[in-house]
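[09:14] KT: can someone run the structure on this one? pasting the chain below
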Amino acid sequence: MAPEVSDILKKALALPPEARAALAGSILESLNEHPPDPGIQTAWSEEIKRRIDEVDSGKVQLIPHEEVRRRLMARLSDASK
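[09:31] RB: done, structure tokens below
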């Protein structure tokens, strides 16, 4: 990593979480060379609506972050043995 990039990264990591998220989003957006395909946008909108409907109807239940993290850490621990 170039020294100037390392310096920028250090400064970015010192920002509050909300600012880091906004910065990351801006950087990711800058990587898109072409405007998004409207078909993809429509498909994502439909998928998001479907998932929200499943949660709202009780068809699926959300798993708290702490539980997901615990399960993931257990799998990683088992995989490293």
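[09:33] KT: thanks! The CA atoms of residues 51 and 60 lie 9 Å apart.
[09:34] RB: yep, looked fine to me
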